[in-house]
# Entry
Amino acid sequence: MNEPTIHIENLSIGYASKHSVKMVAAGISADICGGELTCLLGANGVGKSTLLRTLSAFQPKLDGNIYVQGKEIDAYTDKQLSRVQSVVLTEKCDIRNMTATELVGLGRSPYTGFWGTLSKADKEVVARSIALVGIAHLADRMVDTLSDGERQKVMLARALAQQPKVLLLDEPTSSLDIQNQYQVLDIVRDICRTSAIAAVMVIHELNLALRF
# Structure
C-alpha cells in the first residue's frame, strides 16, 4: 500500500487558553490517502470543524501528531504548508473589483514573489484549475456578481491553483441549492480520483455523504 498522505496519531483537539484547556475530542487516529474523499460526519458540537481547523494548522493541536506527507505538521513553515494543502471555507467572501480569474490566481501566492506577479507557468496552472472545475464561462465575471454556487466553484479552483496534495473543505455545500451541491461534490470527487489529492470534508448532509 502507498504511504498515507495524512497520518493522524492519538490526536487531541480543543482550545487552550492561559488558564484552562477545553478538550473537544481525544484519541483520534486515522490514515487518509491520496485519491480518497473522506467525510467528517456527526452532530453539531462533536468537533468536526475543530478537527478540520487543526488539520489545516489554523489552530494548534493539544496533543498527538499529524503527519502530512511524512512530515509533522508543526515542522512546516506557513509557506511550506500552503504548498502542500489548501482550504475551502464555507464563509461567503465579500470581494469586489476582482474577476474570477484574478481570484483563482491568488492561489498561486505561495509560489510568487513579493509583488504576486504571475509567471507564464503560473497562468497556465490557473487556466488548468479553471478548466478542471468547469468554470471557463465565469473567468471574466466579477466575483461580486456570481451566485453562491458559482462563487464556491471559483473558491475551489483557487484552492486547486495551489497544487495541493491535501484539500480541506468545511461544509462546501452549505447554503447551496441541491443542483449546486451535487455539482460541487461531483467536482471534488473527480479531482480526488484524477489528481490523487487527499480530501477531507466536513458535511452535515448524510445523504450527500453516502452518495459521494
